[in-house]
Structure formats: structure tokens, C-alpha cells
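To the wet lab folks,

You asked to see what we're planning to order before we commit. Fair enough. Below is the target structure as C-alpha cells, and below that is the sequence we designed to fit it. If anything looks off to you, flag it before the synthesis order goes out.
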């Protein structure tokens, strides 16, 4: 049995038909892609004698992810629902403003945001 293209059949027609079918068969065309949620965490640090080595971000009590004193960290593919965030590794003279730890809700197909403001004070002398 031969699988050759019949004589006189325009190859261009075959190619024009096969390309879109292959594209759809390989996942093209959209509509079926699942976008897992992500989280963008930003830290800002003010004051004097700043914490130069940065901090650790703990998600749900897991291992810390490094984040700079003034930086943004994006965590991809989090499960939808509530998560606990904690900024740790702060120098003794630095304090996170607001709730730390805090709970944030992640929704499918969206990027949630969490901002941590840190204030550092002088370790010696008086003002």
C-alpha cells in the first residue's frame, strides 16, 4: 500500500490544510490553557542602618525565599485559596510595618500583590 500523494494532487493544498491541523493538535488555538495564579511581593525599606542582606519570605511556613530590602519577588503557580506570608530575617533594628505574618487570597488566573514596608532605626546614638 502506498502513502504517496496521488499524481496531480497540488502539494500546496495539502500544506495549507495540514499546517492549521498540526497547530491545533499541538495545543494551539487557545481556550484550553490553564493559568495558575501567581504572587508578586514587594519590599521597601526606609530609615537608617538598613538591613543590607535582605530578608526571607516564607509562604505557608515553608522554606524561605530570598528577597532584597527593596525588591520584588514573583512566585509562580501557587494553589488557589488562602496563603500565609511572613517576612523574616530582619535585622534587630528593623521592624515590618503592618501585619507580619499576614494572610492573602490567591485567585485563579490572577497575580495577587503583597507589599511589606520595613522601617530600620539607628543601633547607636540618639537623635
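Sequence we intend to order:
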Amino acid at each position: 500500500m502506498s502513502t504517496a500523494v496521488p499524481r496531480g494532487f497540488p502539494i500546496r493544498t495539502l500544506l495549507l490544510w495540514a499546517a492549521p491541523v498540526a497547530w491545533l493538535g499541538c495545543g494551539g488555538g487557545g481556550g484550553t490553557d490553564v493559568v495558575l495564579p501567581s504572587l508578586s511581593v514587594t519590599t521597601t525599606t526606609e530609615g537608617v542602618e538598613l538591613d543590607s542582606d535582605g530578608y526571607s519570605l516564607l509562604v505557608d511556613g515553608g522554606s524561605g525565599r530570598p528577597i532584597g530590602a527593596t525588591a520584588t519577588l514573583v512566585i509562580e503557580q501557587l494553589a488557589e485559596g488562602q496563603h500565609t506570608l511572613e517576612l523574616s530575617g530582619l535585622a534587630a533594628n528593623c521592624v515590618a510595618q503592618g501585619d507580619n505574618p499576614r494572610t492573602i487570597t490567591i485567585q485563579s488566573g490572577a497575580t495577587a500583590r503583597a507589599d511589606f514596608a520595613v522601617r530600620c532605626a539607628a543601633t547607636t546614638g540618639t537623635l
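Structural context that might help your review: The mean pLDDT is 83. The helical segments are 11-25.

Thanks,
Computational group
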